[in-house]
Amino acid sequence: MQVLIYTSFGILSVICAIFHILANRTQQEEIVTSNPTFIQFQRKYFLVYFLALAADWLQGPYLYKLYSYYGFIEPQIAVLYVCGFASSVVFGTATGVLADKFGRKKLCIIFSIIYSISCLTKLSRNYGLLILGRVLSGISTSLLFSAFEAWYVHEHIETYDFPTEWLPVTFSKATFWNGILAIVAGIVANLFTGALHLGPVSPFMLAIPFLIASGVLVTIQWKENYGNKKIKLRNSCVEGLRHIVQNRRTMLIGAIQSLFESVMYIFVFIWTPLLDPAGPPLGIVFSCFMVCIMIGSSIFQLLTHYKFAPHTILNISLILGLISMLVCVASTNPRHFRPPEIGRASCRERV
After folding, report:
1. 221-269: per-residue pLDDT in tens?
2. Confidence check: pLDDT of 91 > 90
3. Residue 156 CB burial class (10 angstroms; 0-12, 13-18, ≥19)
């Protein structure tokens, strides 16, 4: 199993590099990279944002493993996962309004604090405290993917008066390095958990210094900015719901994305208990998943360059997702798989 996974990671990495090179050849040359003020501003944003992203990705590979290690069975772990997802949904609708009203910088600092607290709760075996940690984690995730980018866009346009055409340059770089950070985070988490034998809680403790560093840099280097302070959360939600209901295309796109992501969340939940009995390096498996995401991103760029219609690309994605799920179902022998018994046996071994 170990040899197979490490070999797969190597092969996937080579494929990813090839597709990335091919995708880069289809892009036009960036003419803004020679602007020293823009480059300096980018680096100031990237330093903070990448530290936050690294902390977030470090917690991905061993979350289920940690709960299982503490002796919780599958239904209990499922509740913990749902609390995190539900928290992100509930508080995610409010983060944009809160950032506009109270300041993006403040929310980025709050992100660092509550995510650090969430990591510290992983040291406890108390179920209620772990649920609290998952709720805080969901709030933090919403802040990570809203407040930081909102701060950058405001500074880019309002403070520095850079052209809006330069925004994709920053976000495309952020997307690429986000993938790299995710891959490296899986390797590092695997190193601390497996090779150094520090246990499945070690990646969460390792994430805390990254979060503290991110918060300190925000405090020292970033200026506060605000959006529309007069906007109300209720009005924003009602307006968004009205637009969804009245626009058929928006509703269909939302339904398709929701259904697809629901399948992905199920996959995120079950991949660890399915593979763990064989004793694979979970961090490297996680890195393999992240490499595949980068491959998909490069393929999307290629298909877009060759004028594939958006709905065609969507259909290709859905077909590939269906095939991958069918392969997963067939390979796990569902007729002979009994989660409760396996879950309890696995817990007894760890306890």
Report:
1. 999 998 877 777 777 778 878 888 888 888 999 899 899 999 999 999 9
2. no
3. buried
**C-beta separation of 201 from 61 below 8 A:** no
**In b/e form, how buried is each residue of 81-109, taking b as 16+ CB within 10 angstroms?**
bebbbebbeebbeebbbbbbbebbbbbbb
Q: How far apart are CA 317 and CA 253, in angstroms?
A: 14
Question: CA Rg, the chain, in Å?
Answer: 21
Q: Classify 29 as helix, strand or coil.
A: coil
**8 A C-beta contact, residue 282 and residue 190:** yes
Q: Which amino acid is residue 287, in one-letter code?
A: S
Using a 10 angstrom Cβ sphere, with 0-12 exposed, 13-18 middle and 19 or more buried, the burial of residue 162 is buried
Secondary structure of 146-176 in the HEC alphabet? Answer: CHHHHHHHHHHHHHCCCCHHHHHHHHHHHHH
